[in-house]
Write a structure and sequence with these properties.
four-stranded parallel β-sheet, alpha/beta
Length: 319
């Protein structure tokens, strides 16, 4: 998979969001992408929707010029029907060989950082009590696994020893309301709901309707979320965070990861090398995704450009 070294060669960043009947939800998506444009002014950033808003994904694909390269970045928080069926089906029908599909946004430590910030903004004090992670929900077992992983990432990010309980607003149980009530019945009175949704809408309204003491806002237009969109684009382009095309980076690790931390051998669709060890660009902040520096030492005190540590996923979920 080649990289794009010159601005003129960079593919279109075509973001595809779920869509909403709520105008505020659609506006939140457009505002997020405006932040991506500010972050990466050299990119042509466009937007489309899977449902309930325009332009649709087929319409946006049809607007690409003949042979125009593009990267389709799903603004989705995990695996599910849209990612497995709807989006590949639209790409197959469009017959556009120059369009690449990026991984979804989640799970990712940056999402856990945004969730933690939103919880703090809701008024929840550190260590106040258990947290219910309110995700959209899906009948796809992989989507539930992604939500559970995000719950573990959030528990690690909060670092207060309180459990983070996955809950689902549709298609699976427990619902956020059920999870909050179960925690109340177990004696936990100070329960918070972390809204694991991108923007306002029907599901966000349901997440806010539990008897929890605090409920965070959706992820919204957080700067870290804009950086994550750009990171997914770069991964699909085959460009390291340091800006070096993958094809020009010499492999130096046994797991297939070069010195800059970008996997180049036997990389799966999720961007993880065959050895299963996730690595990132160590030139940017000196820390791999496994929480260690290049010399192998723990790096919990290392800071990213957003001022917070990139937390590794813990071995097991809390609670």
């Amino acid at each position: 998979m080649g990289g794009f070294a010159r601005t003129a060669d960079r593919p279109v960043l075509l973001a595809v969001a779920h869509g909403s009947r709520n105008p505020a939800g659609v506006a939140a998506t457009r505002e997020l992408l405006e932040r991506v444009r500010v972050l990466r002014p050299e990119l042509d950033v466009r937007c489309c929707f899977l449902d309930l808003a325009a332009p649709s994904l087929p319409e946006a694909l049809a607007r690409l010029s003949e042979g125009e390269p593009a990267v389709l970045v799903p603004l989705l928080l995990g695996t599910g029907y849209h990612l497995r069926v709807d989006i590949p089906g639209a790409l197959a029908a469009a017959r556009l060989p120059h369009v690449r599909l990026a991984p979804p946004l989640g799970p990712d430590p940056l999402l856990a950082a945004v969730l933690a910030d939103r919880l703090a903004g809701s008024g929840r004090p550190p260590g106040a009590g258990p947290v219910v992670l309110a995700a959209a929900g899906s009948s796809d077992p992989a989507a539930a696994a992604d939500t559970r992983r995000t719950a573990r990432l959030l528990a690690a990010r909060l670092g207060d020893g309180r459990p983070v309980v996955p809950a689902y607003l549709s298609a699976a149980r427990p619902t956020p309301h059920e999870a909050v009530e179960a925690l109340h019945a177990a004696g936990h009175r100070r329960v918070a709901v972390a809204t694991y949704l991108l923007g306002p809408g029907f599901f966000a309204d349901r997440a806010a309707a539990t008897p929890a003491r605090w409920t965070s806002d959706p992820l919204g237009t957080h700067d870290a979320l804009a950086r994550l969109v750009a990171e997914r684009y770069d991964r699909a382009c085959g460009v390291a965070a340091c800006g070096v095309p993958v094809r020009e980076v010499q492999e130096v690790r046994g797991c297939g990861a070069p010195a800059c931390g970008v996997a180049v051998r036997e990389v799966q669709a999720c961007g993880i090398p065959a050895c299963g060890v996730a690595v990132y660009d160590e030139r940017a902040h000196g820390v791999r995704a496994d929480g260690r520096r290049a010399d192998g030492r723990r790096a919990d005190d290392e800071r990213l450009r957003d001022g917070g540590p990139r937390w590794p996923e813990p071995a097991a979920a809390h609670g």
